[in-house]
Amino acid sequence: MTCYLSPHCVLKWLETPSVYDLFADELYELDREAFSFLQACAAPGGGDGSAVDKAFLDYCIGEGIIGAVPCRRERPPVRPSPAPSLRYLELQITDRCNLQCGHCYIGRSGDRELPLDALTRVLDEFETVQGLRLLITGGEPLLHRRFDDINRLLPRYAFRKVLFTNGLLLDRARMRGLAVEEVQFSVDGMEQGHDALRGQGAYRKVMRAVEETLAEGFSVSVATMVHRGNLHEFDAMEARFTALGIKDWTVDAPCAAGSLKEHSLLQVSPREAGRYLNYGFGAGLHGGGEGFACGLHLLSVLADGRIAKCAFYADAPLGTLAEGLQECWSRLVPVKLADLECAALSCAVIEQCRGGCRYRAAVTGSEDSYAGTGERPDALSMRRDLYRCHAYDII
Questions:
Q1: Which residues contact 133 (CB under 8 A, 6 or more apart)?
Q2: Residue ranges of the alpha helices (H) in 199-349?
Q3: For a tag on the chain, would you pick the N or C end, based on fewer CB atoms within 10 A?
Q4: Which of 217, 213, 220 is nearest to 184 (CA)?
């Protein structure tokens, strides 16, 4: 039986050889024998299914990793990634926005955007370093003056593309041409809570866009910011998002940055916000790795060309796009959990919390600004890092 690697799957050489399913957003680690077989399957002539263990072959077929039809697209080269691997790239293509949200970490919108030639270079380099997931953010990314040209670039790259949007500009005509696998919408409450941040009528517009995007066959995720106006709406949001079939729901607590500094009435203390992190579902998160804090595999490119650990660290950039992703990535020193103050306290859940968002820890001057929330680690389902830095979830 001749077997071919499915068109939506791509080989990646991360810390271990792997195969990544772009559609399912699943990463499978492989031993050398399995990797060699799938390399043969990715070649034009395909791989010999009789040469591998039948249970492994059946598993690959069942997971949709291999099939009987050859892939017609050219596959990217497979080469060892940097260590640690750069898997997730937040690409802030513009800081232009059609809203002035009271919680936005950017603050007032500007008029900066990444030029097309720079975007092409960074996408090429991200593929070279074996990147997995591109997070296309803003501002509102649909306001980039050359968004349609950017969109036409995307199909050539073998990583998952996720568009982050407030949903107000995403109509059916634009959806049908989108070259992404997933769309993430910012939905910050039910109608009352969402509109309190984003303006009257915004909730109905974004939810119409959510429903239409699902109908067009895209994976859809939602990000919600805890704020003073939506604390009573989380049960209703959970019911609504579950009924719609949302892939992931990320809930994040506010950080005193950007516009939120000027809107004290929206702010919720860490002690109060912590309990709402029990909400949310799915696995589309970008946390750390064993023994390391948040952001082990994440890098951010800002609309002015600076490259930072994440968008909260805009004032402490690692370098610029002119220097390249790999050079800037090499300057980032991963934070080891063993080096944190809380590790010295023999914390039983440090591998789940991962020390939290280091930006928030620096801002509060505390390793445990959520201490006293009364939440047990198992109540957080071992998936919700209390301080996790989701700058890319706030649009």
A1: 25, 87, 88, 89, 159, 160, 162, 286
A2: 202-215, 234-244, 270-273, 325-330
A3: N
A4: 220
**Gap between the Cα atoms of 158 and 172, Å rounded:** 25
Cβ burial of 155 (10 Å; 0-12, 13-18, 19+) is: exposed
C-alpha 386/C-alpha 83 separation (Å) is 26
* Alpha helices in the chain, H assignment, sequence order: 32-42, 54-63, 116-128, 147-153, 172-175, 191-198, 202-215, 234-244, 270-273, 325-330, 350-353, 358-364
Alpha-carbon torsion, ordered 165, 308, 287, 370, to 10 deg: -90
* Structural tokens at position 151: 């969109």
97 CB contacts (<8 Å, ≥6 apart)?
Answer: 104, 106, 109, 138, 139, 140, 143, 166
pLDDT at 391 over 50: no
Higher per-residue pLDDT: 285 or 192: 192
pLDDT digits (tens, 9 = 90+) for 267-276: 787 778 888 8
The answer to whether the Cα torsion of 40, 45, 46, 49 is positive or negative is negative
* Structural contact between residues 78 and 39, judged by C-beta atoms closer than 8 angstroms: yes
Position 74, amino acid: E
Q: What is the pLDDT of residues 27-69, one digit of tens each?
A: 999 999 999 999 999 999 999 999 999 999 999 999 999 999 9
DSSP conformation class of 202: H
| 330 vs 352: which has the higher pLDDT | 330
Q: Whole-model pTM?
A: 0.88
Looking at per-residue pLDDT, the higher value among 189 and 362 belongs to 189
Average pLDDT over residues 367-379: 37
CA distance 42 to 189: 45
Mean pLDDT of the chain: 86
Give the pLDDT of residue 6.
97
